[in-house]
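[agent] plan:
  1. take the single chain provided in the ticket
  2. run structure prediction with default settings
  3. attach structure tokens to the ticket
  4. add a short note for the reviewer (M.T.)
[agent] executing step 1
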Amino acid sequence: MTPAAGTRLWLRDPLAILAEGAAGGIVVAGSRIVERVAGGARPAGPVDAVFDASRHVVIPGLVNTHHHFYQTLTRAHPAALGKPLFPWLKALYPVWAALNPEAFRLACRLAYTELLLSGCTTAADHHYVFPRGLERAIDIQVEEARALGIRACVTRGSMSLSERDGGLPPEALTQDDDTILADCERVLGLFHDPAPGAMVQVALSPCSPFAVTRRLMRDSATLAERHGCRLHTHLGETRDEDAYCLEVFGMRPVDYLDEVGWLSGRTWLAHGIHFDDGEVARLGRAGVGICHCPTSNMVLASGRCRTCELEAAGSPVGLGVDGSASNDASNLIESVRHALMLGRLTYGAEAVSHRDALRWATEGSARCLGRDDIGRIDEGREADLALFTLDDLRFSGAHDPLAALVLCGASRADRVMVAGRWRVVDGAPVGIDTGALREAHHRTALALFGAA
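[agent] step 2 finished; step 3 output follows
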């Protein structure tokens, strides 16, 4: 049961908790954490309710910093199997042109629900396809986030450079710069909440160097500064992108980012794989965040993000599941495990720990989104929490509960709290019939996007 307003809830004696000085649990009041309780102690103040967390590993709610919700409708699509990024995109662009508002709403609902079940409490989605009829896509995302009670960063993505203009996407999925910028103003005015504890924030997200104009990049940066919002785009994902930037702009992607006014702490980038040492240093000095997408990077064989070097240089490093047609899931705790494994393969077994991977998915991701009110279990932070049990056979024999969560492959949270309210209880999302959702979503996917 969700605590009543004003109730002080003690989550007592967790099996393990990712917080210092909280072995005895934490106290939640309203939407915030108000006390960490030492092991063997009781809360300093009175409590109104107690939740026995002795079966649970408690971590901060995971923060997903890059996704494409609409792609849940084209998972494992035959047209895209076994392809790297550019051929993969060109195979799926014509398929995605059939996207409509009803299908998009189901895709968002399903993605948000999947993320919640994986322990995610804040989700950033990068939506950049706007076929005719889907002009109000961002409104739909906000409505679905509010209905489910998940914290959201909705990024108003865009593509304005079609094949006809020397870009990659077909004209049917693009909009002109003026239309895009006008809608960015609209959604910022309607939905962006810059205050601490915000449930919905907006970022501006031109898709990539090969899909938007220079003008759109520059004007988006100006607009973001005026509204106090963040900027997001794909960058450094593939060698093909490097070659495109050199051919079209006469410079590498990071130089282009600097030229259009994006090399700042307001920006976070998806993927960030193919940066050289000098570029890593420049990004770190500017405080540009990097969203590491380990699962998608492996599926598309794009390469390995230089997480350790970027973090050491000063860049916030977060995690994202990326598109659900290049992952092909919306499960952030699984991506934490993938980040650990890929990090160890890259840097060595002693260089990346389970705590590093969990930090990227929590505090690092929060920093990418410019937030210091989420991502940690501490007094004054939002009560966004993911609680996992270790009851499955895969965890039997595990000695370190926090390490087991990652190493043994946790995939589903037992309880999830967002802003002090339970949104997942006993492994089920509150108020969602997952069977009915799956049936409606899958039927729509096959009807709209089924292979001929």
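[agent] step 4 note for reviewer: The mean pLDDT is 96.
[agent] ticket updated
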